[in-house]
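Quick log. Single chain, no ligands specified.
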Amino acid sequence: MDWKDEYKRRVTTPEVAIRDIHDGDCIVLGHAAAVPKAIPHALAEHCEEYSDVLVFHMTTLGENELLQPRCYGHFRHVSNFLSGNSRDVVNHQHGDFFPGYFHDVPQMLGNEIRCDVAVFQATRPNAEGYCSLGVSCDYAPAAIERARKVIIEVNDKMPFTYGATTVHVSKIDHIVECSYDLPELHSAAPTAIEAAIGKHCASLISDGSTLQLGIGGIPNAVLSELGDKNDLGVHSEMFSDGVAELMKKGIINGQRKSMHKGKVVTTFIMGSRELYDFCDGNKDIELYPVDYTNDPVVIAKQYRMVSINSCLEVDLMGQVSSESIGMRQYSGIGGQVDFVRGASMSPEGKSIIAMPSTAAKGTISRIKPFLTPGSAVSTTRNDVNYLVTEYGIARLKGCTLQHRAEQLIGIAHPDFRPMLIEEYEKRFLCKYEG
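-> predicted structure:
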């Protein structure tokens, strides 16, 4: 059968498509800016007809109607990474969180994570009948391959991306044609604190480095300080608008990358409409499944790999907590450890954990004698290389516990240094010399 005939035969409405979802099923939902809208809306509208349906997802931007209170008891959420719209749902016991590295998620689908129905977004098919998964590849190919039923929202506003993002029409059971804008993330201009952190991080980046960074004030501040660098590359879990701006200027060109020379490699993209338009049909950008992009062995093959990640708090031993505040799950580990370890194994590689020195409008120090009781250790003290705040850079790799504590006190906020020094002197039985 010609793929165009197959396509027409598979086109349906959301209400018809969800008839293939049954009580007790597990739905694997698309990720980040590529989260589908029509199928979750239909399921939420008919939530009373469902019982004990599990929904696996990670970050979902915009409104995810399945997270609304009227769906409690009908749909239960399981996530490996929480965000603003899912945090309270899970912490109030209408869902659950499972720890795990992002690069392990595709392998878990169909094994530790059931995968009955895959629901994702994609572009319209190209001339050969292949749809692109657009701005989010990550675990989608694995879910589509292993699910009993595959439902794709074909969105004419989804950018067509390259790499390993395509799915053929013949692999899809139900096609729901849609036209809606992708949710956008617009980062504010970096604050003075973020700008100071950005300068410190940029000082650790050499010409020819390959970067991994995320979204927000600190990554934007770092990118804004790289105007005098040459031949930078990107191999990252995700990227946002700042990377596109440096690509346009030729600063990010990937010419010294060990792998995928000349290409920006990622597994998902989040940002503005302008970013999505920039990525549409751009062959300099390639998306691959997360079990490839975030594989520490793959990351380690990049020359001068530099990873930049953030955290919630760190203790005087260098233990980093990035995903929970005490017993309250806040986000997830994402690709932090994947890239910390990969960068550490890279020739001339560096891993950086960057954070403001305080939280809660300056009332709480992020550098603490001990992590908040119950907080998860995301990146162990054995893995931490550089830690950066607005007050400077601490290199912890190869340092004793005493030297680590001294360096961390030196980059803590001055208001909290007396408290940290008191703990230091009690712990090491000597006077802190500064």
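The longest strand covers residues 149-155.
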